[in-house]
């Protein structure tokens, strides 16, 4: 199948059941016979947690770091693992699980427990990675110890404020699993069709966390291209340029050896360039996807 739009090639990440089915199909294509029980259990745990059905926790309230973001990361991770396999750098069963379970749990630290009375969880931006590790250790005790350890290292590497060298890996498989998920975390979100709209929601998370130093949503939009340049440096240098493997995945799965994630990011950045050249009073009129701007205007009025 050939896609006119790279966004269409990436698929729907709003539908968790569809994402889980795609992850299972991708893993089955390169690791036939792989037991998906642990991955399915983690999807189920996340469903309960984010929906507010896990004892001791409130439902997920963060505006940007929501279920769609987690879905795009775990799906991109599965595609990364397939690409790595095709490049002769495949992972064994435990590390496939570590990468995918780590992707599912990487932002679970934004969840608030019942005692945390105020805020959306965004106030934990600086500590959410460690909170996610603690959550994973507490709620995935049925994982074998070595797999649980590898999974927590995957989560730790998604702290993009730190150089990957801050995590010590026991072996190359662990490192590959973590690099795959950390790469997917960055490119999955920036390739989303609604990324530019969702960046506006990220502003409110940063404001709540008292981080970022942006004057307003326009300031954040204007600095997003520079953020991508910094991110690309991390992807290409710190994370070993692993995203090039995605073209192999799409070549095998969709018959076109193209990196649809990079193509989608490039489209977003090209459109962003034209948006920021528009007068501030008319910018939001050009960001129409997903009904996000309406939510942003409501939030701005209440702040």
Describe it for me?
The protein has a single domain, classed as Catalytic domain of cyclic nucleotide phosphodiesterase 4b2b (Orthogonal Bundle). The protein is 62% helix and 0% strand. The chain has helices at residues 6-10, 16-30, 37-50, 67-86, 93-105, 128-139, 145-156, 172-190, 195-209, 217-238, 246-254, 260-276, 280-283, 292-302. The longest helix has 22 residues, at 217-238. The model has no long low-confidence stretch (mean pLDDT 94).
CATH topology heading: Catalytic domain of cyclic nucleotide phosphodiesterase 4b2b
- Count of individual helical segments: 14
Biggest beta sheet summary: none
Assign the structural class, choosing from mainly alpha, mainly beta, alpha/beta, alpha+beta, or little secondary structure: mainly alpha
Looking at this protein, list some descriptive labels.
Catalytic domain of cyclic nucleotide phosphodiesterase 4b2b
What's this entry about, in short?
Helices cover 62% and strands 0% of the residues. Helix 6 runs antiparallel to helix 7.
Strand-helix topology:
Blueprint: H1 6-10, H2 16-30, H3 37-50, H4 67-86, H5 93-105, H6 128-139, H7 145-156, H8 172-190, H9 195-209, H10 217-238, H11 246-254, H12 260-276, H13 280-283, H14 292-302
Helix pairs in contact: 2-4, 3-5, 4-5, 4-8, 4-11, 5-7, 5-8, 6-7, 7-8, 9-10, 9-14, 10-12
């Amino acid at each position: 199948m050939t896609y006119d739009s790279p966004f269409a090639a990436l698929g729907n990440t709003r539908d968790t059941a569809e994402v889980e089915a795609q992850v299972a199909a991708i893993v089955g294509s390169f690791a036939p016979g792989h037991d998906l029980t642990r991955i399915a259990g983690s999807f189920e745990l996340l469903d309960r947690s984010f929906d507010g059905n896990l004892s001791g926790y409130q439902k997920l309230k963060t505006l940007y770091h929501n279920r769609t973001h987690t879905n795009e990361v775990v799906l991109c991770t599965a595609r990364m693992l397939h690409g790595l396999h095709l490049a002769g750098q495949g992972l064994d069963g435990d590390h496939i699980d570590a990468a995918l379970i780590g992707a599912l749990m990487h932002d679970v630290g934004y969840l608030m427990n019942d005692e945390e009375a105020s805020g959306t969880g965004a106030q934990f931006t600086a500590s959410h990675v460690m909170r996610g590790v603690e959550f994973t250790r507490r709620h995935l005790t049925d994982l074998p110890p070595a797999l649980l350890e590898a999974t927590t290292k995957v989560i730790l590497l998604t702290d993009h404020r730190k150089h990957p060298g801050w995590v010590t890996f026991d072996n190359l498989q662990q490192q590959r699993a973590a690099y795959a998920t950390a790469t997917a975390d960055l490119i999955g979100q920036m390739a989303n069709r609604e990324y530019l709209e969702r960046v506006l929601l990220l502003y409110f998370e940063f404001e709540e966390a008292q981080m970022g130093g942006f004057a307003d949503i326009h300031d954040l939009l204007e600095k997003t291209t520079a953020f991508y340049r910094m991110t690309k440096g991390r992807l290409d240098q710190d994370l070993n340029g692993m995203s090039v493997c995605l073209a192999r995945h799409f070549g095998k799965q969709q018959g076109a050896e193209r990196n649809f994630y990079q193509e989608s990011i490039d489209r977003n950045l090209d459109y962003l360039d034209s948006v920021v050249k528009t007068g501030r009073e008319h910018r939001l009129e050009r960001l129409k996807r997903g009904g996000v701007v309406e939510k942003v205007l409501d939030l701005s009025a209440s702040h």
